[in-house]
Structure of RepB plasmid partition domain-containing protein:
Amino acid sequence: MLGYAEIPAYVVESSEQDCMVMSLVENVARRNHSAPELLREIDALRGAGYSDPEIATKVGLSVAYLQDVLMLMEHGEERLLAAVDSGTVPIALAIQISRATDTEVQRALADAYAAGALKGRQIAIVRRLIQRRALTGNAIPRHGTSSTESQALTPERLRKMYIKAGEKQRLLVKKAELVDIRLNFLVEALRDLLGNPDFVETLRSEGFATLPHALQQRIFREAT
């Protein structure tokens, strides 16, 4: 338990009902560590020279989650760490935000969450959206790079960015549905026409003896 082979303990003999009551009392009394306490404990253990697996065992975390916490401690922007310390931003969400390399983006995402403009899952979506825009050369203007203050990364602007991305996604879904409807109509029409010997003979006489492979597969697969 927590890296110890042995622990001091009192062995109590009692009835099953009393044991259940004592167990319930212990569960109610047990206090989970807050995010600031967890960060301080991890920092102290690292300072004492413990390895990541040893620290993970002692604090009851998986090694992968511990490494995410360490990344937050090493690369997290100051205001983000302060938000975790004050309990404004949950540590799991702070880890998501810290994966954004730009410090202003980290601040903006933390502010957007604190203001209620974005929820947990939306934070990750907006972060990935910002990173994709930066990679494709459509980076969002920062302070000092635009003549208008409205270009700053405000919580409201991030919220609108999320809404716009959602609208684009819905538009893509509608387009895909429209293409599927048209394709189904085409498949049904061709299937009926190919069942007409005169039409097939006319195609052959005009030199159209074959269909595109993908279309042919769909027509005859659905027919069977």
Observations:
- The chain has a mean pLDDT of 74.
- The longest helix spans residues 155-194.
- Residues 100 and 209 are 56 Å apart (CA to CA).
- The chain has two domains: 1-59, 76-223.
